[in-house]
Every structure is written in structure tokens, then in C-alpha cells.
Amino acid sequence: MFSIKHLTPMKKLSLIILLLLCLQIKAIAQNNINNYKYVVVPLSYNFIDGQDRYDLNSLTKFLFNKYGFTSFLQNEEFPKDLKSNRCLAMFANVEKEKGFLRTKLRIDLLDCNGNLIMSSKIGATNEKEFAKAYNLALRDAFLTYQNINYKYVPTK
């Protein structure tokens, strides 16, 4: 019979990491971003006052397009299929994480019902000027979506 008590600390750590990886792979498989055709970016984020402050929303749209997604700002004209079925889109949201002397941002992708599909890694910077800090932290968080090899696959 298998017993965890007899494992060395290193083997216990390896087992925990393996279990966490299995759980993460299962979570990704259930919410496949390739089943969504578009990304809709809001005009403003909760942690900043004003629309497209520091060009953060425009940068979000630009980076999604750069990495193979088709994205729109919330106020742009949508394609016909998206107008008739908003569940073809993922809805981007950028959240600011608490950080002492650091700017930390996370990019969440939500489905049309507000359920989380995927979160990016937390992008961080020590830059003090807001415009630069938000830009650098957002680009750092986008590393998650840069290497994801997104390609739209319609669901049946």
C-alpha cells in the first residue's frame, strides 16, 4: 500500500507539484480559449478613473491583436456574428493586484456569463510613474497570452 509518510520531503514536494499541474491542465481543458472567436476590451478598468486612461485599454486591444486574437474595444462596431451571439467573445478585464512599491496587473478573460476562462500571470514592475508602470506591468502580464498559440475552433 502506498503511504505518504514514508516519502522524503523532496518526493512529497514533487508529488504536490505534479498534482497541481494535473489540476491546472484539467481546468484549462474545460474552458478552452480556442472556442471563442473574439475578445472585447472595456473602455475603462475599475482601478483607474476615466476611459482609456494611460492608453491602457487601447494597449490591451493592441496586444491581443498582436498575439493572434481578434479584439474590439467595447464601443467599436462588432461583426454581425458577434452582434447576434455575444457568447462568441471573451471579455477582457485587467485587475490591479496589491503590491507594496510595485505595480501589479492581471488580465482575466471572462465568458459572456462572467465566468472566468483564463487568468494571466501577474505582470509587475517597480516603475513609479503611472503611465510607464501600467504599460510595463500589462506587457509583462501579456507574456501568458503571447505563447498560448491561440487559434479559433468553432464549437458544435
Quick synopsis:
The chain is of the alpha/beta class and 156 residues long.
State the end-to-end distance.
45 Å
Order of helices and strands: HEHEHEEEEHH
Q: How large is the share of residues in beta strands?
A: 15-25%
Low-confidence stretches: 25-30
Number of strands: 6
Alpha-carbon Rg, integer = 19 Å
Counting DSSP H or I runs of 4 or more residues, the number of helices is 5
Q: What can you see in these coordinates?
A:
- The structure is a single chain.
- The termini are far apart.
- Strands 1, 2, 3, 4, 5 and 6 form a 6-stranded mixed sheet that branches.
- Helix 2 (56-66) runs parallel beside helix 4 (130-141).
- With 156 residues, the protein is an alpha/beta fold.
- Helices cover 35% and strands 20% of the residues.
Give a topology summary:
Blueprint: H1 9-30, E1 38-41, H2 56-66, E2 71-73, H3 80-84, E3 89-97, E4 103-110, E5 116-119, E6 123-125, H4 130-141, H5 143-146
Parallel strand pairs: 1-2, 1-3
Antiparallel strand pairs: 3-4, 4-5, 4-6
Helix pairs in contact: 2-4
Kindly list the characteristics that best describe this protein.
alpha/beta, 156 residues, flat, six-stranded mixed beta sheet
